[in-house]
């Protein structure tokens, strides 16, 4: 999985326009063989349009898609070596679990005995009991249906497996379990997974790389840690979770007290400083940090092992701070609070980069 | 609340139930009673001897029964094939045109069957709309395709088309788009999608449409009389003849009972399988 | 896997062809009704509206019209009332024999109408009732009241049970609940049922044939003339009945559209 190996999927200047609306603006993307790529974006960002074109349910207006060097955007969906797990799962209600899994094999004329053997194997792979083979779809729970849909897609043995938010309808705990299972499954099968979702959390747990989409374009494509630590735009930074922004103009940021070292490092720079609430730490009155902030606590929220505070700075700007429970602020709402962080925890989005997005 | 619903349900169902008891079940029981009487009597006071049923068997009336059922079956199969593409269009492809079609087709139901069949006579007869203009333009006439067996089936197909079309469209609309797309994505051809997904999932609509068409066509008479020139006498026609010209109420009743038994079996079987609440979209 | 433009166009063309197939015979009847010749033959050489004048001034046609209207009128009103209550029991309330009741109601719709007409004739005879247009009303209702019930039921199925409960919760009694909540909500369904009832009674032949006795409705008269020698009035009267139905259907559609338009809240 090095960058030098040829990509399994190459998307070139892909554009999709509807009557008076452009859903995709000349998108480019290379997907590595065997990677787990998550495409994340809010609704309306074009991710569903993109995946529908990639599996062949829709045709692009312009551009091309190559799979291992073969152009596939002109190939109908039923002739492409890829397949998708639908948001609704689209299991056939009139067929048993086994018949659902065997469906792609039946279409290819595989002999019944061989089909059944493969279906049972896949039940094992997905950790479903073998006697589910003859169960009706309606008798399966949400998580079991999920596994059956996965087994059916794996029976197809696709070059690339696409996922269209298949976990979005499940309850939180089941979703967490299945996210991990999916990640394990990816590792075991070694297949290329392309997963679209609006949930960043889901993408972070499972994927090797995340592509963030906004208004029909990719905003940033990188591993999760990199996107989190070094977002290219305010949009990405906010999308990755709660964040504090401070305008930096020629090295000065109102509301932020800078240490000498920090002042030197930021001298003359203009842009937006982004600071995650959890990278801030409580400071005593004389404590020091590269960047420090002072304000009054206006709200507090308990988040399990952590506590989140909202505080208002002297400049009137609101700021979010998250600390471990043991570091709770004495006095709570109304108390004065001083927090700070190292320069390495504050990421600067340079002016030009954000303006382009 | 539940107590109230139980009481109101019973109360509100009463008028229609009592009405049908008196005007539907009672007359059928009367027909059943008459069918056991000796032939050509006009009261129920005789000793039952079931001779009318013997006549039904011995006088070749079973041929009318067989013909009626055969023609009804044929019309049903033809209608399935004719209506499927249109029902598919109505359920999955058309947008506004579905409404136009629905209104257009329902409208024909409100025109007396007689007038519409008579219209076919005017259309198909020698010197009718088709032959008349054909002869006028080409100088060549041809015989009217009327007064034979096939034209009766044609008439049945024509008259009962709406009864196949709407249940089919309803059935096809219940096939989830996702299931069709998933099958396509998994490599199914159009034909395989039809066989593996559309047909099985639209089966309730197919069954309702087919049974409705079959049952109605099996009891039909006007197509044979008006278009077919009674080339084939249907069972309903035999019933009417026995009652009117034959003045043989027990025979007519026995024939009616045969028809009722066949249709009743099919209809009751179908109705008992159907979940009306689910089909009509009941809330909770 | 969208349907291609070509397939869509082909399907629409097929739909238009089917509509053409359904309406072709009415075109023939319509053309025949304005042919001047006493013995119809296509191509029609001379057109004239004389037969319409004859039909509209004929005493026979007037008598037929009056009977048809009386029957259809009473059937309409009765179907609306029976259908309203029948549908509440069919669709709305949970009661013990609901499923059985639903099935009982469907049976007459499936039943061959000729046989039903004859059975009713025997039944009236057994009861000592002389058949007339009044018995025809009963005969029509056996078939039409269940259909009206089904039509209202479609509306009643989408009825939110909480609405009635809310009214009762606020102190409405049985009658007030019915008047303030149930009737207004089901009214569109009841109106369509009335329209269906009128149209189906207006065009019915097999039930009328045996149940009208000495009286005769328009479809009966038409049938009699069709089988026993051609009368140039047949297409004309036929077209007049078709026109009446068409006017009613379109009137109903326009009314429904207008009500939906005028009502501000929806």
Automatic annotation (TrEMBL), chain A:
Provide the ABC transporter domain boundaries: 9-240
Q: Which parts of the chain are coiled coil?
A: none
Q: Which Pfam families match?
A: ABC_tran (PF00005), TOBE_2 (PF08402)
Name the residues that span the membrane. Answer: none
Instruction: Say yes or no: keyword ATP-binding present.
Output: yes
The reply to whether Ubl conjugation figures as a keyword in the UniProt entry is: no
This entry's Gene Ontology molecular function terms read: ATP binding
Q: Which InterPro entries does the entry link to?
A: AAA+_ATPase (IPR003593), ABC_SmlMolc_Importer (IPR050093), ABC_transporter-like_ATP-bd (IPR003439), ABC_transporter-like_CS (IPR017871), Mo/tungstate-bd_C_term_dom (IPR008995), P-loop_NTPase (IPR027417), Transp-assoc_OB_typ2 (IPR013611)
Provide the alphabetized UniProt keywords.
ATP-binding, Nucleotide-binding, Transport
Under the heading Gene3D superfamilies, the entry gives: 2.40.50.100, P-loop containing nucleotide triphosphate hydrolases (3.40.50.300)
Q: Which PANTHER family match?
A: SPERMIDINE/PUTRESCINE IMPORT ATP-BINDING PROTEIN POTA, SPERMIDINE_PUTRESCINE IMPORT ATP-BINDING PROTEIN POTA
- Name of the protein in question: ABC transporter ATP-binding protein
Which species? Pseudodonghicola flavimaris
Automatic annotation (TrEMBL), chain B:
Recite the UniProt keywords alphabetically: Cell membrane, Membrane, Transmembrane, Transmembrane helix, Transport
> ABC transmembrane type-1 domain: from which residue to which, for each copy?
65-272
Membrane topology annotation? Multi-pass membrane protein
Q: Where does the UniProt annotation locate this protein?
A: Cell membrane
The transmembrane residues are 12-34, 65-87, 99-125, 145-166, 199-222, 251-272
Is Transmembrane helix given among the entry's keywords?
yes
Q: Cross-referenced InterPro entries, in alphabetical order? A: MetI-like, MetI-like_sf
Chief subcellular location: membrane
Similarity remark: Belongs to the binding-protein-dependent transport system permease family. CysTW subfamily.
Q: Which PANTHER family match?
A: INNER MEMBRANE ABC TRANSPORTER PERMEASE PROTEIN YDCU-RELATED (PTHR42929:SF1), INNER MEMBRANE ABC TRANSPORTER PERMEASE PROTEIN YDCU-RELATED-RELATED (PTHR42929)
Would you tell me the protein name for this molecule? ABC transporter permease
TrEMBL record, chain C:
TM region(s), chain numbering: 12-34, 71-93, 105-124, 136-157, 178-202, 237-259
Q: What is this protein called?
A: ABC transporter permease
Cell compartment(s), UniProt: Cell membrane
The record's similarity note reads: Belongs to the binding-protein-dependent transport system permease family. CysTW subfamily.
Where is it predominantly found? membrane
Organism of derivation: Pseudodonghicola flavimaris
Membrane topology field: Multi-pass membrane protein
Q: Where is the ABC transmembrane type-1 domain?
A: 65-259
Pfam families attached to this UniProt entry: BPD_transp_1
Q: Which UniProt keywords apply?
A: Cell membrane, Membrane, Transmembrane, Transmembrane helix, Transport
CDD domains xrefs: TM_PBP2
Q: Which PROSITE patterns match?
A: ABC_TM1
InterPro entries (UniProt xref): Bact_Polyamine_Transport, MetI-like, MetI-like_sf
């Amino acid at each position: 999985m090095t960058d030098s190996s040829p990509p399994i999927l190459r998307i070139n200047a892909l554009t999709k326009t509807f009557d008076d609306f452009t859903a995709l603006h000349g998108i480019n993307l290379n997907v590595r063989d065997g990677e787990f790529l998550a495409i994340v974006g809010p609704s309306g960002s074009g991710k569903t349009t993109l995946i529908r074109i990639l599996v062949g349910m829709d045709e692009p207006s312009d551009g091309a898609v190559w799979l291992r060097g073969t152009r596939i955007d002109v190939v109908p969906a039923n002739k492409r070596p890829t397949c998708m797990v639908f948001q609704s799962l689209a299991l056939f209600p009139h067929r048993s679990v086994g018949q659902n899994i065997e469906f792609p094999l039946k279409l290819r004329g595989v002999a019944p005995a061989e089909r059944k053997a493969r279906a049972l194997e896949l039940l094992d792979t997905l950790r479903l009991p073998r006697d589910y083979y003859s169960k009706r779809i309606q008798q399966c729970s949400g998580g079991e249906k999920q596994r059956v849909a996965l087994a059916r897609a794996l029976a197809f043995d696709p070059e690339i497996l696409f996922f269209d938010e298949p976990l979005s309808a499940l309850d939180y705990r089941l979703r967490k379990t299945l996210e991990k299972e999916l990640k394990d499954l990816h590792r075991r099968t070694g297949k290329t997974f392309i997963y679209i979702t609006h949930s960043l959390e889901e993408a972070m747990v499972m994927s090797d790389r995340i592509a963030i989409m906004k208004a029909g374009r990719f905003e940033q494509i990188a591993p999760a840690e990199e996107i989190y630590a070094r977002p290219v735009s305010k949009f990405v930074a906010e999308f990755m979770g709660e964040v504090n922004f401070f305008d930096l103009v020629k090295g000065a940021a109102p509301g932020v007290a800078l240490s000498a070292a920090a002042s030197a490092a930021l001298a003359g720079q203009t842009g937006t400083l982004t600071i995650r609430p959890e990278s801030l730490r409580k400071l005593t009155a004389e404590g020091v940090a590269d960047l420090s902030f002072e304000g009054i606590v206006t709200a507090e929220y308990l988040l399990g092992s952590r506590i989140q505070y909202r505080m208002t700075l002297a400049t009137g700007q609101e700021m979010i701070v998250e600390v471990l429970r043991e570091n709770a602020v004495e006095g709570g709402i109304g108390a004065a609070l001083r927090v700070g962080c190292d320069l390495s925890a504050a990421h600067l989005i340079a002016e030009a980069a954000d303006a382009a997005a | 609340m539940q107590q109230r619903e139980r009481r109101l349900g019973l109360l509100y169902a009463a008028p229609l139930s009592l009405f049908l008891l008196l005007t539907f079940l009672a007359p059928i029981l009367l027909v059943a009673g008459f069918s056991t009487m000796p032939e050509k009597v006009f009261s129920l006071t005789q000793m039952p001897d079931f001779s009318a049923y013997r006549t039904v068997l011995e006088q070749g009336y079973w041929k009318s029964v067989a013909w009626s059922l055969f023609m009804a079956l044929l019309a049903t199969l033809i209608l399935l094939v004719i209506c499927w593409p249109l029902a598919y269009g109505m359920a999955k492809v058309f947008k506004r045109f579905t409404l136009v079609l629905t209104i257009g087709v329902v409208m024909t139901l409100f025109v007396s069957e007689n007038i519409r069949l008579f219209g076919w006579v005017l259309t198909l007869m020698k010197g009718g709309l088709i032959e008349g203009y054909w002869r006028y333009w080409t100088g060549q006439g041809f015989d009217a395709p009327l007064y034979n067996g096939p034209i009766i089936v044609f008439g049945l197909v024509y008259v009962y088309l709406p009864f196949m079309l709407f249940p089919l469209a309803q059935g096809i609309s219940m096939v989830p788009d996702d299931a069709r797309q998933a099958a396509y994505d998994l490599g199914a051809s159009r034909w395989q999608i039809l066989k593996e997904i559309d047909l099985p999932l639209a089966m309730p609509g197919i069954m309702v449409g087919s049974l409705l068409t079959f049952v109605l066509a099996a009891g039909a008479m006007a197509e044979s009389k008006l278009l077919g020139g009674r080339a084939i006498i249907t069972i309903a026609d035999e019933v009417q003849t026995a009652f009117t010209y034959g003045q043989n109420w027990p025979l007519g009743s026995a024939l009616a009972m045969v028809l009722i038994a066949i249709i009743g079996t099919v209809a009751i079987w179908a109705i008992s399988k159907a979940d009306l609440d689910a089909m009509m979209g009941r809330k909770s | 896997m969208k349907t291609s433009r070509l397939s869509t166009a082909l399907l629409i063309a097929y739909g238009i062809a089917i509509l053409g197939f359904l309406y072709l015979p009415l075109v023939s009847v319509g053309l025949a009704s304005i042919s001047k010749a006493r013995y119809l033959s296509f191509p029609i050489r001379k057109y004239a509206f004389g037969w319409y004048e004859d039909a509209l001034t004929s005493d026979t046609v007037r008598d037929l019209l009056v009977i048809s209207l009386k029957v259809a009128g009473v059937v309409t009103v009765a179907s609306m009332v029976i259908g309203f209550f029948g549908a509440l029991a069919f669709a709305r309330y949970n009661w013990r024999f609901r499923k059985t009741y639903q099935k009982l109601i469907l049976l007459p719709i499936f039943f061959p109408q000729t046989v039903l007409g004859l059975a009713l004739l025997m039944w009236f005879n057994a009861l000592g009732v002389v058949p007339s247009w009044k018995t025809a009303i009963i005969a029509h209702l056996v078939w039409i009241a269940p259909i009206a019930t089904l039509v209202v039921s479609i509306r009643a199925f989408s009825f939110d049970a909480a609405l009635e409960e809310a009214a009762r919760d606020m102190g409405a009694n049985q009658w007030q609940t019915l008047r303030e909540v149930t009737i207004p909500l089901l009214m569109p369904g009841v109106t369509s049922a009335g329209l269906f009832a009128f149209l189906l009674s207006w065009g019915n032949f097999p039930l009328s044939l045996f149940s009208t006795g000495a009286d005769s409705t328009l479809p009966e008269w038409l049938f009699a003339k069709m089988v026993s020698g051609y009368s140039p009035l047949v297409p004309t009267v036929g077209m007049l009945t078709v026109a009446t139905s068409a006017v009613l259907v379109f009137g109903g559609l326009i009314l429904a559209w207008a009500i939906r338009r005028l009502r501000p809240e929806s």
